[in-house]
Amino acid sequence: MGEALHTAAAAAHAWLQSLDTRHVNAEHDVDQVAAVLRQPFPEQGARASDVVRELVAAATPGLVATPSGRYFGWVRGGVLDSALAADWLTSAWDQNASLLAGSPAGAAVERVAAEWILDALGLPGSASVGFVTGGQMANFTCLAAARHAVLARAGWDVERDGLLGAPALGVFVGAERHVTVDLALRYLGLGQARSTVVDADDQGRLDLAALERALEADELAHPGRPRIVVLQAGNVHSGAFDPGAAVALAHRFGAWVHVDGAFGLWAATSPRHRHLTAGLEHADSWGTDAHKTLNVPYDSGLALVADADALHAAMGERAAYLIQDDRPDPLATVPEFSRRARGFTVWAALRELGRTGLSGMVAGFADHAARFARELDALPDVSIVNDVVYTQVCVAFADDAETRAVAAALMAEGTTWMTPSTWHGRTVLRVSVSNARTDDDDVARAVEAVTRVLGQVRGGR
């Protein structure tokens, strides 16, 4: 075992050391990597260290350098050193974090990390925090708590009796909500097509007057029925935030308010950006992803629910073979029974950064995004099509065809990684800044790459 771990550590160190100089894109595609690995299922096993070497040799050419400071695809954060080390320990310690009795250390670290998160984000200290897999399951878990609470107020026990025959539930979502909201509603049996879609402005922010009209119309048609309103902290294209005033408005109609803040919720930690989340702290639940902004390894979503009892009722269960007491077990905050101890990495990242470091890191992401916007907007026939208020930049070139060509050429060239998308009917190159490794030199190299590739695309016409 020792030799295998040393082999893996050496390979990990070599990978991390290569990030400053290697291309961000993968050398081999999925078929090439599979071809190297493919063989009949071996009759005999192999030494653990040899298995690690074989895996490294086959996988390395197919790795995308997502931890690189020049990776700006989708919204994918990097990994802080302490969080990476804690992740290795998490696997080595092999704790099942479902029960207090099953891993006192795993449960205790999650408890303290939860307290720090709520403090950093300015959320109620009495809220309950579930350590889930990612932003998708954070939304699912929070909306499960919402479903429980609003139906319980209407006299319906959804955990016992299901949805068949339950009071009709009204769900209100913004026109530019993230797709994970629709998926969570689908998983919860609420049907994404049954949601009332509220208009958004040109930056993707939910329109407050439109929400009020929708709620008034719903109250007229279905007086007093259970309702859920879903808001967004950080539009995936523009980075825009739904207005905090929507929380009080929704509460007037008895709605549970959930905030999908996968990456944007962390703006609350930066004094310069805290105004973006003002009012959202009064919501009933919040979903976020510690990987995207806190820079911990994957498998680290956070479901934060102000009404702890609602979360425990929606997620928790008891069984004779479990060792349980009156205190809620971690399994009462997440959809899983068995799971890894996700709190170790989150605690480590928060301990490494502290309040000042976390604030500076988040503000730094926004500063890098603002620099991208300034320097790319200065290129001929290039425009920034969103108001850059946080970490997202949408770039459009002379026309959609040129934008697609630049995006494809950039991803093939490998100096940087920026992903194409379509926003408001226009093809854009989307730049998402969320990696603590990114520095001024990385931004400069990325801008140079865009400039160079743009020249090549235009020169080839």
Structure commentary:
It is a single chain. The chain has 461 residues and is an alpha/beta fold. It has three domains: 2-68; 85-348, Aspartate Aminotransferase, domain 2; 363-459, Aspartate Aminotransferase, domain 1. Helices cover 44% and strands 11% of the residues. The protein has a seven-stranded mixed beta sheet with strand order 1-7-6-5-4-2-3, with helices on both faces. The radius of gyration is 23 Å and the shape is globular. Helix 1 runs parallel beside helix 3, helix 2 packs antiparallel against helix 3 and helix 13 crosses helix 15. Its cofactor is pyridoxal 5'-phosphate. This is Aromatic-L-amino-acid decarboxylase. Keywords: Decarboxylase, Lyase, Pyridoxal phosphate. GO terms for molecular function: aromatic-L-amino-acid decarboxylase activity; pyridoxal phosphate binding.
The SS-based structural class is alpha/beta
Note the main sheet. 7 strands, mixed
The shape is globular
CATH class descriptor name of the largest domain: Alpha Beta
The number of strands is 11
Which fold name fills CATH's third level, the topology of the largest domain? Aspartate Aminotransferase, domain 2
* SS field, number of helical segments: 15
Structurally, the number of domains stands at 3
Give start-end ranges of low-pLDDT stretches. none
CATH architecture title of the largest domain: 3-Layer(aba) Sandwich
Beta content: 5-15%
Q: Trace the largest sheet across and list its strands.
A: 1-7-6-5-4-2-3
Averaging pLDDT over every residue, what do you get? Answer: 95
How helical, in percent, are the residues?
40-55%
- CA-based gyration radius: 23 Å
Pfam families: Pyridoxal_deC
Keywords: Decarboxylase, Lyase, Pyridoxal phosphate
Family: Belongs to the group II decarboxylase family.
Protein name: Aromatic-L-amino-acid decarboxylase
